[in-house]
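Final report, closing paragraph on structural work. Over the funding period we assembled a curated collection of sequence-structure pairs, and we close with a single example.
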Amino acid sequence: MIRVATIAELQTILDGERQQGRSIGLVPTMGALHEGHASLVRCSVKDNDVTVVSIFLNPTQFNDQTDLAKYPRTLEADCALLEQCGATIAFAPSVDEIYPEPDTRQFSYPPTDTVMEGAFRPGHFNGVCQIVSKLFFMTMPDRAYFGEKDFQQIAVIRRMVEDLGFPLEIVPCPVVREEGGLAMSSRNTLLTAEERQTASQIYQTLCKSKELMGEKSVASLHDWVVETINAVSGLKVQYYSIVDGKSLADVQDWNESDDIVGCITVFCGSQPIRLIDHIRYKG
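Its predicted structure, as stored:
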């Protein structure tokens, strides 16, 4: 595996690969890699001749600088994992390399980027679109891989790809979960063992809610999920939204759409750590 820190070196390598007719897969990450990221890399390695994994903790998508400061940074361990997974290139640039000057571009795809995470983290998805579009321009991949844990992010990126006309395929990959059901996340490393066990009740509650959807309205099921999770010591729901899986608009009735997803964000522990998850009710 080659480790690259500059855009010029990355593009020189990829131009050579492209000239030889090789396909390129991109896995954008913010580092602190875990088995969820590894599953994306393995998918790309299977599908493409060349797999580029970016490791870049993007400051423009953090509206909370405290959150950015405590985000885990584990570059050496990340590169070791990528080598094990068969990645071709680890692209780990500096902030100055990516943003030699401020990125003032504005992206707007309502309601996809204005609800849920968009409402609670102003500017977050604009920052996501800034960095992902930059990575797409730099690498011009055939395919790009994203974990379905970040369900809303994939929907926003699809809108951006359509808007900017990138000739690539977005490949969503299934959520990878810990033994208790907690969705794997770099933030999980900030939880104590006890807090991880507590956090596993988020997904367990979502699974139980799917069993109950036949006997509850959308509104009553929403309230049941929020009340059940908030009753667990150490957990506090920030939002729970039951939405159309494509538009991300709220649904009021189970017959309103054939693609319905429940998306949740929960604070866990004393710090507290912000965790996201979702469950598909229909589709």
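Residues 193-212 form the longest helix (20 residues). The chain has two domains: 2-173, 186-282. We thank the funder for supporting this effort.
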